[in-house]
């Protein structure tokens, strides 16, 4: 019997099997997964693809993260996207000096950032068992719903498992997307692949993110995992 089952955790059976498959561990200490990525991104269906390199921290015990990237030729643009203590933030800067855009905290932005945290749990697998602020429910056809009700908003995503018992995709019908000066809830999805074992955890090394607008899906983010580690939040 695994340590997960010995702990008698009140989790759906499908989640327990997923956690066992990917090597998730139970921790009550403040812990972060830290990773580095590279890939390409764009802002819309007709936008120009730009290269990026990014580093990210994802909290295992609470819905918080920080993603910082150098984007475009010579990394001239610095992009930050984060959620800390219920406060969603983000900005784009030129040469890390001139602010080109800055996100204004709002319920829509907060919901979107919580959904991003949930969607990226495959890169923080210990959070599947260690973050008590995330609730789980089994859906039909090997699907799990992860939800957070906090900071005055509700947010959830659906994880679809593949035949190997790992997460193949994540989706939502109502993720807020910034359009002009406001937000509109749109269908959204991400796919994961190229799983490899790192420090005892089975992690996806490739991912893609897409939006659906006016009946058409288009990708906006494609990335690869280059480095991953986990440790105390203060380290």
In a nutshell, what does this entry contain?
The longest helix has 13 residues, at 107-119. The chain has a single domain, classed as Clam (outer membrane lipoprotein receptor (LolB), chain A), CATH 2.50.20. It has helices spanning 3-6, 13-22, 107-119, 127-130, and strands at residues 31-41, 50-59, 65-71, 77-84, 87-94, 98-102, 135-139, 143-150, 153-161, 167-179, 182-198, 201-213, 216-232.
Count of DSSP H/I helices: 4
Strand order of the largest sheet: 6-5-4-3-2-1-13-12-11-10-9-8-7
Number of domain modules: 1
CATH architecture group name = Clam
CATH fold category name: outer membrane lipoprotein receptor (LolB), chain A
Mean pLDDT across all residues, rounded?
92
User: Helices and strands: which structural class?
Assistant: mainly beta
Percent helix, as a range, is 10-25%
First-last Cα distance: 32 Å
Secondary-structure element order, as H and E?
Answer: HHEEEEEEHHEEEEEEE
Low-confidence blocks of residues: none
Largest sheet: 13 strands, antiparallel
So what's the CATH class?
Mainly Beta
Strand residue percentage? over 45%
Shape: globular
Radius of gyration in whole Å, from Cα? 17 Å
Beta strands, count: 13
